[in-house]
Amino acid sequence: MFIKIRISHVIFVEILTGLFFLTNTNAPGGSMTVLRHLFSPVRIGRITAKNRLLMSAMSINFGVDENNYVTDQLTGYLAARAQGGAGMILVGGAGVHPTGLELPGLPALWEDGCIAPMKKMVRAIKPYDVCFGVQLMHGGRQSYHDRKVAPSPIPALAVVKGVPRELSMAEIGELVASFGDAARRCRDAGFDFVEVHGAHGYLINQFLSPNANHRQDRYGGSFENRIRFFLEVLDNIKTRAGADFPVGLRINGDDYVEGGWTLDDALRLAPILEKNGADYLHVSGGVYGSKQLSIPSMYVEHGCFVYLAEAVKQVVRIPVVGVGRIKNPEMADRILREGRVDVVAMGRALIADPMLPEKARSGNLNAIRPCIGCCLGCIHQVLALEPGSCVVNPDVGREYMMADKETTAVSKRVLVVGAGPAGLAAARVATIRGHHVTVVEEKGCVGGLLLLAARAPGRGEIMDMIHFLARELERLKVGVRLNTKLDQTLLDELNPQAVILASGSLPEMPIIKGLFTVKMDLCTVTEVLDGKIIGDRVIVLGGGQAGLVAADFLAEQGKVVVVLNRKRHFAEEMSSNDRYYLRERLNRDSVRLYKQVAVQRFTDDGVIFTFAGKPLTLERFDTVVVAESMSAVRDAKPMLDRRHVELYVIGDAKSPRHLMPALSEAEETGRAL
Ligand SMILES: Cc1cc2nc3c(=O)[nH]c(=O)nc-3n(C[C@H](O)[C@H](O)[C@H](O)COP(=O)(O)O)c2cc1C
Ligand code: SF4
Hints:
alpha/beta; TIM Barrel; 19% strand; binds iron/sulfur cluster
């Protein structure tokens, strides 16, 4: 798999011939590609953006004060993205009215008091030559609080609970004006444009969609009535903020909901919006609880909503923006070159790496830190009303205090034990800080358990992060010694001043009656993902992420799989968006999932357990795969303790957990040295 180059007894991993081809991912390709189409200017109304990359609006749920006015934290987050070179950037989901604040930590635009802090933000962003806008939003029934209003008293399909109050005619008028006033405040603060959120199941989309709007007055019923609110909002913005103030509109090309808004509806609406003064259309899809989610996870193809924008582009002349799992700048350029859309929006790719545009522009594609589509740090956190973050980029939200963090410290000899994600991430940051780092790894390749996790169907994208870290270590010329177990001789040779122990974890065998005497094949989830040949009828013990992805892996091979989950919920450690697609995949005849089971004992060829208060027996199985819990591996610790070296235990070696805390801890450790 790898070509190993020996230089002074140190083995460097040769990325291009080894790791890079481990999985078929969508990682960016070779360097020095000229992305002519992406980096050509585009005119939006009276403004011109320097390139065709729009950072889409993302409600990040941090960076506002007690009045929901923007703070330096949000400015720092956005300034990092502006510095990164996107042509257009949107402040995500700002509330136009107190009843429409989607999440507690979003900017408020309903009082003039918001203008001064926004002016300060605009001043900080403007030097980066970016078109800076705000997305105007009313959450309607999809707002987190209990003062929800909507066209009709129909609860959201998922995520938030509670029946919204039906809007009166007077209130509809007030909300129309609140969009106009909010746009005027944005203009006064110095923003270049606004985008109105008419997609994703929020208030405007609720008016549009027949399944959410059951009104019988002039705002409901016919197509003309359902679009009225949107048109009045647009008109009011033009009146209050000025006819020449650029206004983009975000619409769904498809709600992906039975009885909801469809592409045909979007194609009918788009020319009307153009005629009424829209300066661009941004076409997305999905609502809370739809079949295709607005923020899809790694299971969904890249560029998933572009076909909707492409269709809309055929019926209008204003610029049309396409979106959906676009993270590869070469792909973005191709979409533009093929004339499918006029502007490409990226969301999570720019959370993961704010510098993506500049790296792409300068042909440095390999340096891009890739979003892996896990949805865990970003949308999962914010919908849990926590500040948004990112699994692969722990600096999100901390940009405003990071300015001097990457400077060189007193240089130390640092040994990292283990080349899983935590070890690699710690080695990277420690090297950037100026330390001399060596990594030792017992196995013949880097990546740790993620190598196995990425083998399950639809999960190969996880490897993009490992590829990135491995490329970084190569760039930084970090010595990585593969197939090397740390012993006293090596420790004496390296003589480190600090050691980071990142030796990972291994699956644990639970003690359950009969488990160790079964006549079935007994193995662990890691063995299965590593390719161990097993029988056709499999019991998977454990309904966490590992158990479910293993079940999917086995079902794909045509096996009959039963998953026994002793916990209350399946795969709680996954983001709900990611889990949704995995659960859909497992929805097949050959897979049975049981949760909240009490396993009584294993038999020679099966298991007896209680489910929903009733005893059940499974027979004629040939394999048990244990996927319940992991145990930290710290074999080298006693030796390191004896040496009294500065020691940090991180990642799964500290306590087996998900990637997000492990990577965050790794970077912190690299910085703390
Ligand atoms: C944390 C988070 C918050 C989001 N908030 C908004 C929002 O306020 N308004 C909006 O139109 N879209 C929002 N989105 C959707 C994104 O703008 C984008 O359409 C979606 O993430 C798909 O693009 P991507 O695959 O490039 O991330 C959000 C996405 C994320 C990840
Ligand atoms: S948390 Fe996951 S999906 Fe969200 S931006 Fe980061 S890597 Fe991408």
